[in-house]
Amino acid sequence: MAYGSSDIRNVCLVGPGNSGKTQLTEALLHAGGKISECGSVDRGDTVSDFTPRERELGHSQFSAVCHLDHKGIHVNLVDTPGYRDFYGRALSIISAVETAAIVIDAQSGIEMIARKMMNAASEQRLCRMIIVNKIDAEGVNLEALLEDIQSTFGPECLPMNLPAADGESVVDCFFRHSPVETAFGSVEAMHTQIVDQVVEVDEKLMELYLEQGQELKPEQLHDPFEKALRDDHLIPVCFVSAKTGAGIKELLEVFERLMPNPTEGKPPRFLKGEGEGAKEVLVSADPDLHAIAHVVKVNIDPFKGRLGIMRVHQGTIRPGNQLFVGDARKPIKVNQLLRINGNEHKKMKVALPGDICAIPRVDEVYFDAVLHDSHDEDHFHLKSVHMPRPMYGLAIKPANDAESQKASDALHTMEAEDPSLQVEHIASLNEIVLRGLGDLHLRTVIEQISDRYNLELITSLPSIAYRETITANAEGHHRHKKQTGGAGQFGEVYLRIEPLPTGEGFQFESKVVGGSIPSQYLPAVETGVRQVMDSGGNFGYPMQDIKVTVYDGKHHPVDSKEIAFVQAGKKAFLDAISNASPIVMEPVVDVSITVPSRCAGGVTGDLSSMRGMISGTEALPEDRIVISGQAPLKELQGYHSRLKSLTGGDGSFTMDFSHYAEVSPDFIESATTSSAM
Hints:
Elements: E1 8-14, H1 21-31, H2 52-57, E2 64-70, E3 73-79, H3 87-91, E4 99-105, H4 112-123, E5 127-133, H5 142-153, E6 157-159, E7 161-163, E8 170-172, H6 187-199, H7 203-211, H8 218-230, E9 235-239, H9 248-258, E10 269-272, E11 279-282, E12 292-301, E13 305-314, E14 322-325, E15 332-333, E16 338-341, E17 344-347, E18 356-360, E19 370-372, E20 380-382, E21 392-398, H10 404-417, E22 422-426, E23 431-436, H11 439-453, E24 457-460, E25 467-470, E26 474-482, E27 489-499, E28 506-510, H12 522-535, E29 546-554, H13 562-577, E30 582-596, H14 600-609, E31 613-620, E32 624-632, H15 633-636, H16 639-647, E33 652-662, H17 665-676
Parallel strand pairs: 1-3, 1-4, 4-5, 5-9, 6-9, 28-29
Antiparallel strand pairs: 2-3, 7-8, 10-11, 10-20, 12-13, 12-19, 13-18, 14-15, 14-19, 16-17, 21-23, 21-24, 22-23, 25-30, 26-27, 27-29, 30-32, 30-33, 31-32
Helix pairs in contact: 1-9, 6-8, 12-13
């Protein structure tokens, strides 16, 4: 199908696991004519769950891009995983779309992931809508659920359709608002609410509607409807059943006729430069301008090579074009462009603004890279999604030492594919730690490595990433003098240190005057200081939040060398640390624990016993409760087993890095012992 940017709709289905996003994707592909019949999650033959593990387990582990062409509109659908441990994988791809559709299970109600994805979509300036799935399930109270949605997300959440009284279909409230009996509510009243909400963003239309009493057609409401979406003034709610097909055609019509196209949605915020000096640059969905695309996902196959999935934001890309990757000075050649439908890839001749497509076999492509065809776009980057910090860790080593390099390569491949994963090499302990968002996340990665590389990995709890810092100002001095026959070594350094605010890292400054330390030796002094920052001062942990100022020293015209000033800087820094009231810091995490209400007392008491603090609780449907608080990461290692025991296997938790806090003297000895094991 030939189409332009205004004919594209990009929609990302996000929300909790088991809300039916994959089955909903299947139903939409079928309604749009892309597939002849719906696959089934239970049978393991859906388009978007195509890996063997996904089909075996019956749930999504990765985001998948699908598409359909219907009534002159090209719809890109992104199906995302919903389990808490895969939240980062879902979050990393939402920048590819204009619309985030939060899918809610009619039985389970509003879960924590739905709230988090709603907030994340708002932060990304995406238009949002809510899809209530499984309306045919037994015992659902859809009227109460709609009230809960409006209470949680705001009164601007208005239904585009209502469940019919027969329980087998839905009744349109916007396009064809006929007075049909519904399970609850009046179609006419719902239609009036939507129109009232939409015209508030268009004064001329409001005048026609309110003062002249003119009935407005859907075509007249399209532009203000889209503006209301962009201004977060309206969040459409659609009721569907992916299983029976109820509401699917109506949902597809909402996508096609009301959701923003790439020329209408809020333009992505690209930045030029780094740090506080970065300036925002708006891109335009104009096919005639310089090409700018953003890599939203990377797949690396041992046999097929690297596949970079990208969203085109500006310009036109064709096979044969040359593109720069980020700040690289050497361009890559686009040999092929691929349109993606799950695991199926087909060649395409051109990619327009709004297209989501892939470039195969380009090793230089990486997640979050900006691809462009002009040096004017050097140092361009998209304003990053705030990704959760991977805090749950496992120490990793191959079962066979001879496969160490193979294991390292496999881990770094997984890290390149998953932006919520981190591989950390702790040199002082010779330990490789794989960090993710939870036990399920890491187990999935280890299974993936086993399947893909036939590699067995041994896992254990990692050492805690303790840090050292100082709490007082101090000065240090060292003279390094060595004579071994012939030219010797000489360097003398005076420096002062001071603590920085938490999170500031490390600063190095020179206030040397008169050439007492020649400028060519100052980098050597900094090298020595950084060696201590990396290896630790009093306790052997990396140091943070310290400013070092070198203010005096001495050199020798013959014996002074870089190595002498490295050693002098190192020893002077250690001398200052010993007088600066050093302390050990431990990572503290925000923790959110979801348990049955009957278990709340036991769980809160247990968390308090682990040096944790409770900040609040929130009641959920189905007699469940969310307990929020903070606790040291050390106490939460292996917590999934502890929580399973406390709740009979009916609890779950997530954690995210909060800050570093001082370890009490009682725990310093145990911390040191733990790190050394």
